[in-house]
Write the structure tokens for this entry.
Amino acid sequence: MGCEISTRERAGIINPMYDCQPAGAQYAGIGIKDCIPLVHGGQGCTMFVRLLFAQHFKENFDIASTSLHEDSAVFGGHKRIEDGVMVLAQRYPDLRVIPLITTCSTEVIGDDIEGTIHRCNLALKKEFPGRKIHVVPVHTPSFKNSQVGGYSECMLSIIKSLTSAKAAPSGKLNLFPGWVNPGDVVLLKRYLSEMGVDGTVFMDTEDFDSPMLPDKSIHTHGRTTVEDIQGSANAMASIALARYESAAAAQYLKTEFDVPYTLAQTPYGIGNTDAMLQTISQITGKPIPDSLIKERGVALDALQDLAHMFFADKRVALYGHPDLVIGLAQFCLEVELKPVLLLLGDDNSRYKKDPRILEMKKTVDWDMEVFCNADLWELEKRAKDPDTKIDLILGHSKGRYVAIDHNIPMVRVGFPTFDRAGLYRQPTMGYQGAMLLGESIANTLFAHMEFNKDREWLLNTW
């Protein structure tokens, strides 16, 4: 009995859980206002990622490609970069940031990205003397790490490139949530507002839930401005809510600009949200308001109604981004669910030393497996195994066929979720997110009971 941490030994990957590094870098890039990422690689490195974003958000996003072909693979693709940067500058008069995102092919052939950016800057200065366009090098070879690492790398590169000197303290708080949905960004901004804290959420993706307005204007873009990023060096402090997606950027601001930095628990569930709000309160001196205390109480009441009656001892398999999976496992423990399988889908060796996993390793009194560098075949294999006995799956839409084939109820959470409506606008973080997630789990279990005629009479008496 206890928690076992293991790693996939197969060389091949069957049904991957994550996309590659450039995908994560593109997601970070589109969170910036007046920014168009330029992906240095084949067209598919852009097209298929944009398709994922469109599936998840049901919106279109501007992402450019250098459209590498065979001749560039032999002679180098620097000319494609220069042409791409100049075309973007000419076509988009408000453009201010171009993250130049490398891919496996361009890293293998060894294109001099920094040298090419220097030439681009000279050409931009000559062609557009009144404009400043930041071309940011983002090195994301697809043959290592994953979209998780790519997001972190792009965040770090953008902070490095746009922050140059410390000015007068702004009194603002930097909040780095990592790769989250617009619903989580809106919730975090609301929490800061209710506490009276002047803060910036990096990246602000609220407008990814884009309105359809009478004037037909398009508002599907990030809200984080160049000034927001430059001002991060002058903040009172930074709080990173994702160890693997945002901690590097916050650490850089501490090292280079002496901005105090706290790595907080990712706020999934009641306890982690308590800790986050207490951290914000301690840093800013602002009290936690009665409105959030009431929201906490409502969430506790809702979860109490469900936990012992319907959740107790249900065995849960989770997969997705590491901070999401580990945070949701902690939430499961709060509501009497038993996380028995945690699948983390890339080769990051730090997962095995994650203090949250080590804490669970000390405390769980049932068989729980944390599987690193995993793919969805591992989920399928365990779903077939009667000894594992999975009662519930928590993960993104790519695992839906495992749930369908093995008649296991599944709650969609994470990226991408394309087979359920509107999940991107619902928070998973915070008290409200905990309540919504708990009720979604309950309703999924209820529907499964009715479909299988499995003690569905309980729902009459509850």
